[in-house]
Write a structure and sequence with these properties.
With about 650 residues, this protein is an alpha+beta fold. The protein folds into two domains: about 160 residues, Butyryl-CoA Dehydrogenase, subunit A, domain 2; about 350 residues, Butyryl-CoA Dehydrogenase, subunit A, domain 3. About 50% of the residues lie in helices and about 10% in strands. Strands 1, 2, 3, 5, 6 and 9 form a six-stranded mixed β-sheet that branches. Strands 4-8-7 form a three-stranded antiparallel β-sheet, with no helix packed on it. Strands 10-11 form a two-stranded antiparallel ribbon. Strand 2 and strand 3 form a beta hairpin. The protein is globular and about 90 Å long. It starts with 10 loop residues before the first helix and ends with a helix. The structure holds ligand LHLMBYCS and flavin-adenine dinucleotide. Pathway: Lipid metabolism; peroxisomal fatty acid beta-oxidation.
Length: about 650
């Protein structure tokens, strides 16, 4: 699509784009993280878009379960080959965002890239990396991360798969003792992978040392047949991500060499002696790494959905605002703006938080190399909180965008249903959100109780700021609103801690008191993480060196985000005195003003996300706004339209209609 050729474009969209009062390219660079990154993303996307191998013969929704899998495997393999062939040597992990949309509904290599390789990087020692890292990066072996079992996903300590060390032959014996110990869910495990990292309970010298990672060959490298002692299969259709072959796995006393235990952090020596790690949760590192990645992935899903909903809302006309006048664009309804524009604001919130989190991750990783694990709990808490809020915000945001498109948003060809199912699974995988938020709450209560002790953990240092509990601000600057979030979080933590203490003082065991307070604890964790997101948003926009136009747009989006979230949880702000009922009413009014200010820029802001039509894959969201023709053309692809009268008519309908004659 030639974006300079207005003649092919819907007139509403042309008018919207003429209202733009900021430099779109500059905003695109901010979204990508710099000019160089924009150029790189575009280069990769150009490479993919122009390649006919990535086209589907028929829309995926008309394919069988098997065909979907094999079609996406074909494209995934081609993608890997293509990226490997590039002279510039693409780093697939760095460039993962550029690939969004090219593979549809998950893909069989997803967990190989996002967990198996990172597990080798983070859990294998240098000899082990020598043996497996290069091979997995070159895709000579394909792996997955097999942790979850039929009986346990959340509670990693409850896993039942056993790895028992036999010092006489220096081997581990992997065994699945019960049906509930069957590995269940790992992506690509069913039919694609020939290796995997298995999390299993380590037994040596008669003792259990808890879950540890082991690398296991599952299939013969020549024939791809599963090895003796190993039962493998695929678990069947799911709500989404159906192009992936999530699988099951059972071991029947399957032996692997001692050196297949990933030994970067803990070891089992030849005689069976266990050497413990620097920190007992280092074996959970792969999950933490991916949680950080999920925040960025969620912001991309939301960019897709909100691009579709905003463009469609500019093209779609319905009903009337002024009686008797022409039907307005639905984007002119304030209620429609309230659905769509806060989701645009949310995209930037997630982008800026993801960047801040990834910086913290890099510094924690650097410290770990020097044997310093002090900031691991801080990273665990932040990555858990941000994974939880980003996945729930993005899922809700995508769903709101779908609802904002009325009936057409329900159609597969809008690409909103698949975007939703592909996003909502992030609420569950890589740590179910409630469980992760309770981990954050645990860290908050612990930090609150150790006020005065220097931990170096900056995200919770505000808990020591007791003076702010009393100081309700009368100013409404963005900074002041961020302070209100801080006050609300601090006061919820103080309330939860007091409630816990009271129950304990009344004689309850701490763990019962914890469960009894867990709804409030969840709120603490959400408020704390929301405060973190708001603070990063405000600081990033405030310190941004940008043109006036771009800065104004981002300031308004940031302010909208702050006010939107205050109104959603206003009870917490009132309860702690951070804001008065009058303040809330004023802010609600200002939110409507902000919607009106941002309304004329909405299409241009989503244009700045710069998602090519070929990747957006939506009849409703295409650049030129030619929505109705596309909807019609897509409908014609339905196999039911191959004939005027379907076979089923003769088989079932005709006999029914004639039965009463
Ligand atoms: C580099 C490239 C990356 C690219 C990424 C791109 C992303 C793309 C998008 C997605 C792509 C792929 C899809 C992924 C598919 C999904 C795969 C999966 O789902 S894999 C399975 C995931 N499973 C889980 O996440 C399980 C969740 N459960 C847990 O993590 C743990 O069970 C628990 C943390 C809830 C509890 O653990 P437990 O051992 O029981 O802990 P205790 O209660 O005894 O102790 C808590 C104690 O430990 C600290 N802790 C916990 N975890 C950590 C950690 N990781 N690091 C540091 N510390 C940790 C915690 O803070 C507590 O400390 P205390 O001091 O005791 O309070
Ligand atoms: C699409 C998809 C892909 C996946 N890919 C992989 C993969 O590649 N590898 C892999 O190993 N796994 C994978 N998983 C599994 C996933 O990690 C688990 O499903 C997830 O960790 C949740 O665990 P669970 O299913 O045991 O849920 P459960 O823990 O049984 O959750 C059920 C309910 O119980 C609640 N609950 C549980 N524990 C607590 C608690 N302590 N406090 C309060 N409430 C609690 C939860 O909040 C939830 O409401 C995948 C899952 C999905 C959906």
């Amino acid at each position: 699509m030639d974006k300079n050729n207005e003649r092919e474009c819907n007139e509403d969209l042309i008018r919207e784009r003429r209202k733009c009062n900021f430099n779109i390219e500059e905003l695109t660079n901010i979204v990508d993280g710099g000019k160089a990154r924009t150029a790189r993303r575009r280069e990769i996307q150009r490479l993919l878009i122009n390649d006919p191998e990535f086209l589907d013969e028929i829309p995926q929704d008309y394919m069988s379960h098997e065909d979907r899998y094999s079609n996406e495997l074909r494209k995934s393999a081609h993608l890997m080959q293509k990226l490997a062939d590039q002279e510039s040597g693409h780093d697939i992990h760095q460039d993962i965002g550029a690939l969004t949309g090219i593979l549809k509904d998950g893909n069989p290599l997803m967990v190989h890239l996002s967990m198996f390789i990172p597990a080798i990087l983070g859990q294998a020692n240098s000899e082990q990396q020598e043996k497996w890292l290069g091979r997995s990066l070159r895709n000579e072996i394909i792996g997955t991360y097999a942790q979850t079992e039929l009986g346990h996903g959340t509670f990693v300590r409850g896993l039942e798969t056993r790895a028992t060390y036999d010092p006489t032959v220096e081997e581990f014996v992997l065994h699945t003792p019960t049906i509930t110990a069957t590995k269940w869910w790992p992506g690509g495990l069913g039919k694609t992978c020939n290796y995997c990292v298995v999390m299993a309970q380590l037994y040596t010298q008669g003792r259990c040392y808890g879950p540890h990672p082991f690398i296991v060959q599952l299939r013969d490298e020549e024939t791809h047949r599963s090895l003796p002692g190993i039962t493998l299969g695929e678990i069947g259709p799911r709500l989404g991500l159906n192009s992936n072959d999530n699988g099951f796995l059972k071991f029947e006393n399957h032996r692997i060499p001692r050196t297949n235990m990933l030994m970067k952090h803990s070891q089992v020596l030849k005689d069976g002696t266990y050497v413990k790690p620097l920190h007992n949760k280092l074996s959970y590192g792969t999950m933490m790494l991916v949680r950080v990645g999920i925040v960025g992935a969620c912001s991309r899903s939301l960019q897709y959905a909100v691009t579709i909903a905003t463009r469609y809302s500019a093209v779609r006309h319905q009903s009337e605002i002024v009686p008797g006048q022409p039907e307005p664009q639905i984007l002119d309804y304030q209620t429609q703006q309230y659905k769509v524009i806060p989701q645009i604001a949310s995209v930037f919130a997630l982008i800026f938080s993801a960047r801040s989190l990834s910086k913290i991750q890099s510094s924690v990783t650097a410290k770990l190399k020097d044997g310093n694990t002090d900031l691991l709990p801080e990273l665990h808490s932040l990555s858990s909180g941000l994974k939880a809020l980003s996945s729930s915000d993005a899922s809700w945001g995508v769903e709101v965008c779908r609802l904002a498109c009325g009936g057409h948003g329900y159609l597969a060809s809008s690409n909103l249903p698949r975007t939703y199912t592909g996003t909502t699974c992030a609420i569950t995988y890589e740590g179910e959100n409630t469980v992760l938020l309770l981990q954050v709450a645990r860290y908050l209560i612990k930090s609150y109780r150790s006020i005065g002790k220097e931990t170096g953990a900056s995200s919770v240092s505000y808990l020591a700021d007791q003076t702010s509990l009393a100081s309700s601000s009368s100013s409404f600057s963005n900074k002041a609103l961020v302070q209100a979030f801080k006050l609300s979080a601090l006061s919820l933590v103080a309330e939860a801690e007091a409630r816990l203490q009271k129950l304990c003082d009344m004689g309850q065991e701490f763990y019962h008191a914890w469960n009894y307070c867990s709804v409030l604890l969840l709120k603490c964790a959400e408020a704390h993480t929301r405060y973190y997101i708001c603070e990063k948003y405000e600081q990033t926009v405030d310190s941004l060196k940008a043109s006036e136009g771009v800065k104004n747009v981002l300031q308004s989006l940031c302010r909208l985000y702050l006010i939107y979230h205050i109104t959603l949880t206003h009870g917490d702000f009132l309860k702690c005195g951070a804001l008065t009922p009058r303040n809330i009413a004023v802010l609600e009014g200002e939110m409507c003003d902000l919607l009106a200010v941002l309304r004329p820029q909405a299409v241009s802001i989503v244009d700045a996300f710069d998602i090519p039509d070929e990747l957006l894959g939506s009849t409703l969201g295409c650049w030129d706004g030619n929505v109705y023709q596309r909807l019609y053309d897509e409908a014609l692809k339905s196999p039911l339209n191959k004939t005027d009268v379907p076979d089923a008519y003769y088989k079932y309908l005709l006999p029914l209609m004639k039965s009463s004659l």
